[in-house]
Specification:
The chain is built from 7 helices and no strands. By secondary structure, it is mostly helical. About 10% of the residues are buried.
Length: about 140
């Protein structure tokens, strides 16, 4: 269970980092300027954006404030993502080793969790239809 929680936290941090980069670029603010606005070092800003460090709550608040990110909306989005990932992890635990490798490969190739979950859901429907048609054939 602890691994799932760590994975969820990491994914939420990565989502915030991506949102942070998009917003910073939209506002045409450099990492150095963001550093000056937040009081955080440019090195910290850079390592958050490169997903090399965990984001402390105080960093999250400072960055969100500087980039004029609505904290409530951002937290809601991050919590929703965490819930989706939690459900996905629970579903993934029901998969066999080959299916897990396939999902990891899809994720490595750039598919996001939502897309992978959608593919899995469609595949489940296909398998269920096949099983139902096989039962009809046996009768």
């Amino acid at each position: 269970m602890k691994q799932i929680e760590e994975k969820l936290l990491l994914e939420v941090e990565h989502t915030f980092a991506q949102d942070m980069i998009k917003r910073r670029k939209l506002l045409n603010i450099s990492q150095t300027q963001l550093s000056e606005m937040t009081g955080l070092s440019q090195r910290i800003i850079s390592s958050i954006e490169r997903k090399e460090t965990s984001i402390r709550l105080s960093y999250f608040i400072l960055i969100a404030k500087a980039l004029q990110i609505d904290l409530h909306k951002s937290l809601d989005k991050l919590l929703k993502k965490a819930n989706e990932l939690n459900l996905f992890e629970k579903q993934k635990n029901k998969l066999n080793a080959d299916e897990k490798r396939m999902i990891l490969k899809m994720n490595e190739n750039g598919l996001n969790i939502e897309t992978i979950a959608s593919i899995i859901e469609k595949e489940k429907e296909t398998v269920e239809k096949f099983l139902k048609s096989s039962e009809i054939d046996k009768e």
